[in-house]
Design brief:
This protein is mainly α and 189 residues long. The protein has one domain. Helix content is 60%, strand content 0%. The chain has six helices and no strands. Helix 2 packs antiparallel against helix 4 and helix 2 packs across helix 6. The longest helix has 38 residues. The relative contact order is 0.18.
Length: 189
Amino acid sequence: MATDSLRLKPWFNYTDEERSLVILNAYKKRVLLSEDLKSFLTTNRIHNVSQWIFPVVAYPFLNQFLWKPSAERLIFRSAPGANAAFRITTMAVAWIAWLNFSPFYKKLENSKEDLLDLAQSRIGLNVKYLNDITPRYWTSQEINRQITELYNQRNSVLAGYLYPTEEAAEPLVDLESFPKNVRAGSITK
């Protein structure tokens, strides 16, 4: 139908942690398989590395193009502590901007969206019931770490000996266990 592309997705108001939790629960219940998660896990690893390497890469650029010219100004010559505070502040602001606006973060968000679309195509609007209560101390990175750990357990050499294999991990989702009165565009209790 033509209006389906205009409809909001069931997870449009979920936080980043809730989206990651839906992906984790879908992977636990085998709605999503290991083949589906490979690109997401690669993107997550690249994003994590880029978070911690950014200060090392940005320091020479900020030093050459921002801190040296500003140190030659009169205001920073008179106050050496102001120069150090300026360096720390600009590095912190640049790092926070990188964490929120880096292309790797946007790619990670897009791969999460693709996985949620795939889960919705497999179980429909029942994807909403994969969102459990998230503990407050769980961040998106912690949930992504749990997804990576579960993936590594299911696909390791020790799968079948110490860890369950992909086929025997948990029973497949029984669609009969989900509520029946879920319709698009309606609010149910």
